[in-house]
């Protein structure tokens, strides 16, 4: 069935060629338009050839038809454009000739790929082109026209003469002076790469057996530059020999070039006589006057047919005269074959599950668990018939990577291609084996590909393994929504390098979708800024030269000194030109930077390279650089060696550093923390660019508008959970993915419970900040937050609460000193002051207030207490500066206990401060001491306090906080000397509002700048 298509299209192309061959005038016009009438019958195309109007009509109709029928319109369209561009650039680069059946086929192939019904011929692939070197040996129209000027024999061995002549006749060249100005001096900064280039010429000439001059022209563009470099080589050699002080020449004198010209001049004159002895070369594309092929009426089996086909293709590739004959033989045989309607030969196309997964045809079913969804995994669909698969195969066959390319490639790469036409006969079966598959194999291949992919995925160091909840082996330095930043394996080529990786396992970056690319570009932007801040340039490269290994795609980011950054394009160009020199059907260099400037912009890379072919691409700027299609993955340097050698050479690294390509390990990477520190401020730009989510835990009562206003920088989300179990469930289900910062209130404890290690471990990896709305954050396990990878940074509200808390503190001091509670209590019971009346209280004036924990609240309290005439002493872990202490005396803990009339607790609760005041401490206090606490209940051992109150050691207490809120120790409620307030320290509209405003400001700063306004002290150094 496939062969039928194949042969049909071959027949068409043959007719086409025939008709084209017969016209000898008006070539350029037809050359431009030839793709319009390719698929017509020959009579049709003869008609259309005669009228321009017909042409346009035709092409218009065709366009309409295509847009109507093609459900893949845009892709198809852009591919068309790409090919067209590709083709026209070839037209520019090389002699115009109609005698190029392969190229002309390729030109039109896409027009026929309207549907699977009209599958293209397998040689309709524009990857199949004869190398340019060969083309130069073709008769050239330009040469025929220029008989009156210089004639260079087409068998001229010194190919460079042709190039020398390019645009000038030889006489002109002779008269140009050998001396000329170059914009460099010997031994300057560009010298290193000119010498590299020169050595590469010698090396390649030696390896390939080609003439040095020939290679030199390829590399240097012309021989003069090459000779200049040779002069420089001599000069540098002398400087080396005679020492620094020796300077012979500063710029090239042109003497070597002069020498060459003299030599050529003498040779040329002896050769001009040969010009009439030009052999009669059969022009390609013309039908040949040969006898109709015989013996094609016999039935050939599939193998024989394949052999014939391969032979024919090879002849076409070579531009051999036999091509036409073979084609006819093949057509006839194939037609017969098709008539037998043998269904056992099918052709395997691209059967990667990933490609199929995108289709709606049901070859495979998507795996519907989370892992499957995330990775785009598929499983075999047993319901799918072979017919369906075939249809799919046909659909994809004409695309790059299809079977046509495979066969062409195999033939082309075969070592004996050049010199042994008969070789094909013996090897046709072998070479075609990939092309032919039984129905069974077709199905099995899809499945084995699927298994292979799964193996790769299971061992992938860059994948997050959801099923076992194992993070990637590579360190995650910075996580965005669809991509993340990691560090390259050691040893690094350049200090502080990094690597951008899509979270989903892609085999190359061209597989990434728009969203992923958006993030990749954001990373590229931010990294560029970061390295520039460090005074360095940066380049990016992707090595996708080994698609068969299905490795996780990554973009390597390499910072370079500015001086090297400028010359890096030259280094890469050089290296790419030296690579893959054996057989080239593609242009070696794909200048995506130029293409981006020509209008493709940021799409230059994605539109210019194709994901089905192995490639290497380096970015010198955000939008482009140089690309190269790798002809033979097996010959490409293993792993990342290609780029490492170029960069290592630029940076003068030792070979063992260049050659060693380490692996990631889980053992903890010492580079991560320093990198994160430098990266921190840039990370958030990534998040901002991808519109992060901000999660609200609890309620915002006063600053609602401020919260809403955050929606200009973040997506505001809430939790649906009513309790901790539900919340954990929600996190695990990925419903909060993309949350970068969470805002939490004291009251959200009811939903999430303690913000402990368990909770932190299930929070989305994207979450980097927690803005707690409160001064004390004992509900949050800061240590667990710091330990998580990546860490969660926590902020509190340190100063907004100071005033209100200190006010309550003062109220409690006065209330407790003056013993107001007993009287107020009696009054409500209708007993006036009560019987007996309460003890007389004490005035604050002149009393010593010992503040334990002289932070924001403590210092605020100090000012207020001094207004009441109290003398303030304090104890902290560290003594405050004079300015902060503002006259308060620093004393030891024990001294504070022993000398204070009133002890106020204003320190945060943590493991060290829990029960900091207990039985032994009470014993060290003065008799009739007053104890006040607005910090956290648990800093006092409540039971010990009750005992001390009962024993009369403590005169009275004023408490706003309790050890097990809202439960109150009964010993406190029954004691009339204790003034109790149900945690109302910040219970005021003004303070509640400013606390919320403050916490929201932390959220905003986190989103906008990647930092917190008031990070908790424990994390200041994180
Ligand atoms: Zn992976």
From TrEMBL:
InterPro entries: Cwf19-like (IPR040194), Cwf19-like_C_dom-1 (IPR006768), Cwf19-like_C_dom-2 (IPR006767), D-isomer_2_OHA_DH_cat_dom (IPR006139), D-isomer_DH_CS (IPR029753), D-isomer_DH_CS1 (IPR029752), D-isomer_DH_NAD-bd (IPR006140), NAD(P)-bd_dom_sf (IPR036291). GO terms for biological process: mRNA splicing, via spliceosome. GO terms for molecular function: NAD binding; oxidoreductase activity, acting on the CH-OH group of donors, NAD or NADP as acceptor. Residues 451-573 form the Cwf19-like C-terminal domain. Residues 582-682 form the Cwf19-like protein C-terminal domain. Belongs to the CWF19 family. This is Uncharacterized protein. It comes from Talaromyces rugulosus.
């Amino acid at each position: 069935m496939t062969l039928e298509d194949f042969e049909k299209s071959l027949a068409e192309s043959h007719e086409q060629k025939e008709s084209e061959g017969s016209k000898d005038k008006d070539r350029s016009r037809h050359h431009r338009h030839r793709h319009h009438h390719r698929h017509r019958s020959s009579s049709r195309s003869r008609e259309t050839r005669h009228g321009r109007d017909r042409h346009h009509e035709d092409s218009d109709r065709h366009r309409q038809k295509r847009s109507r029928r093609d459900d893949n319109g845009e892709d198809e369209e852009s591919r068309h454009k790409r090919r067209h561009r590709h083709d026209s650039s070839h037209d520019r680069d090389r002699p115009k000739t109609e005698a190029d059946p392969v190229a002309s086929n390729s030109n039109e192939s896409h027009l026929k790929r309207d549907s699977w019904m009209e599958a293209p011929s397998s040689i309709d692939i524009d990857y199949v082109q004869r190398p340019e070197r060969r083309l130069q040996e073709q008769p050239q129209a330009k040469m025929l026209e220029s008989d009156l000027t210089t004639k260079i024999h087409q068998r001229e061995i010194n190919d460079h003469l042709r190039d020398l002549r390019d645009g000038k006749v030889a006489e002109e060249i002779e008269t140009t002076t050998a001396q000329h100005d170059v914009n460099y001096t010997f031994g300057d900064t560009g010298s290193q790469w000119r010498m590299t280039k020169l050595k590469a010429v010698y090396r390649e000439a030696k390896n390939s057996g080609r003439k040095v001059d020939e290679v030199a022209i390829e590399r240097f563009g012309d021989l003069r530059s090459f000779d200049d470099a040779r002069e420089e080589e001599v000069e540098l050699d002398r400087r080396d020999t005679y020492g620094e002080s020796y300077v012979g020449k500063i710029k090239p004198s042109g003497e070597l070039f002069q020498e060459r010209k003299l030599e050529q001049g003498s040779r040329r004159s002896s050769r001009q006589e040969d010009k009439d002895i030009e052999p009669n070369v059969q022009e390609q594309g013309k039908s040949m006057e040969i006898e109709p092929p015989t013996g094609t009426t016999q039935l050939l089996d599939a193998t024989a047919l394949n052999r014939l086909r391969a032979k024919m293709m090879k002849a076409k590739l070579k531009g051999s005269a036999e091509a036409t004959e073979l084609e006819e033989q093949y057509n006839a045989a194939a037609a017969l074959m098709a008539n037998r309607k043998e269904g056992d030969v099918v052709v395997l196309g691209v059967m990667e599950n990933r490609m199929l997964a995108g289709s709606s045809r049901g070859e495979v079913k998507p795996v519907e668990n989370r892992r499957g969804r995330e990775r785009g995994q598929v499983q075999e669909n047993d319901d799918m018939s072979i017919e369906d698969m075939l249809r799919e195969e046909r659909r994809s066959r004409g695309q790059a990577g299809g079977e046509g390319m495979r066969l062409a490639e195999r033939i082309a790469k075969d070592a004996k291609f050049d010199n042994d036409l008969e070789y094909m006969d013996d090897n046709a079966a072998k070479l075609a084996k990939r092309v032919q598959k039984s129905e069974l194999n077709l199905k099995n291949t899809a499945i084995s590909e699927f298994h292979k992919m799964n193996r790769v995925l299971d061992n992938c160091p860059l994948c997050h393994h959801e099923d076992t909840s194992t993070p990637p082996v590579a360190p995650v330095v910075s996580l965005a929504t669809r991509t993340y930043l990691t560090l390259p394996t050691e040893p690094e080529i350049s200090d502080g390098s990094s690597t951008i990786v899509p979270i989903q396992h892609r085999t190359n970056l061209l597989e990434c979708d728009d969203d992923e690319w958006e993030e990749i570009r954001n990373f590229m932007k931010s990294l560029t800024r970061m390295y520039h801040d460090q005074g360095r340039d940066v380049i990016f490269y992707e090595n996708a030269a080994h698609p068969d290994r299905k490795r996780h795609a990554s973009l390597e980011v390499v910072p370079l000194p500015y001086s090297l950054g400028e010359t890096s394009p030259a280094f890469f160009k050089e290296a790419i030109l030296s690579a893959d020199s054996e057989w080239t059907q593609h242009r070696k260099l794909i200048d995506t930077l130029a293409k981006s400037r020509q209008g493709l912009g940021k799409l230059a890379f994605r539109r210019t390279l194709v994901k089905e072919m192995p490639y290497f691409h380096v970015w010198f700027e955000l939008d482009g650089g140089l690309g190269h299609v790798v002809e033979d993955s097996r010959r490409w340097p293993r792993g990342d060696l290609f780029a490492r050698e170029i960069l290592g050479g630029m940076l003068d690294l030792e070979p063992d550093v260049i050659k060693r390509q380490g692996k990631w390990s889980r053992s903890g990477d010492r580079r991560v923390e320093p990198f994160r520190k430098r990266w921190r401020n840039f990370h958030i730009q990534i998040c901002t660019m991808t519109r992060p989510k901000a999660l609200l835990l609890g309620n915002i009562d006063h600053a609602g508008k401020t919260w809403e206003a955050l929606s200009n920088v973040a997506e505001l989300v809430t939790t649906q959970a009513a309790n901790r179990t539900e919340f954990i469930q929600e996190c695990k289900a990925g419903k909060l993915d993309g949350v970068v910062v969470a805002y939490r209130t004291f009251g959200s404890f009811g939903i999430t419970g303690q913000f402990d290690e368990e909770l932190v471990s299930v929070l989305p990896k994207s979450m980097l900040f927690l803005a707690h709305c409160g001064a004390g954050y004992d509900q949050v396990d800061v240590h667990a937050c710091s330990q998580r990878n990546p860490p969660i940074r926590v902020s509190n509200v340190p100063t907004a609460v100071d005033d209100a808390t200190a006010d309550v503190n003062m109220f409690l001091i006065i209330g407790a000193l003056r013993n107001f509670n007993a009287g107020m209590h009696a009054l409500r019971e209708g007993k006036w002051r009560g019987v007996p009346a309460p003890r007389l209280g004490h005035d604050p004036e002149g009393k010593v207030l010992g503040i334990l924990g002289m932070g924001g609240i403590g210092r605020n309290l100090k000012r207020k207490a001094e207004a009441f005439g109290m003398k303030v002493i304090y104890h902290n872990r560290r003594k405050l500066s004079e300015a902060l202490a503002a006259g308060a005396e620093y004393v030891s803990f024990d001294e504070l206990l022993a000398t204070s009339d009133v002890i106020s607790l204003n320190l945060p609760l943590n493991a060290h401060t829990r029960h900091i005041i207990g039985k032994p401490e009470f014993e060290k206090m003065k008799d009739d001491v007053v104890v006040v606490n607005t910090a956290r209940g648990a800093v006092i051992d409540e039971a010990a306090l009750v005992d001390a109150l009962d024993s009369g050691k403590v005169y009275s207490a004023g408490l706003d906080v309790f050890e097990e809120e809202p439960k109150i120790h009964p010993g406190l409620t029954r004691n009339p000397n204790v003034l109790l307030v149900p945690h109302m320290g910040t219970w005021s509209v003004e303070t509640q509002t400013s606390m919320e405003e403050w916490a929201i400001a932390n959220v905003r700063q986190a989103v906008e700048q990647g930092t917190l306004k008031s990070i908790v002290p424990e994390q200041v150094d994180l």
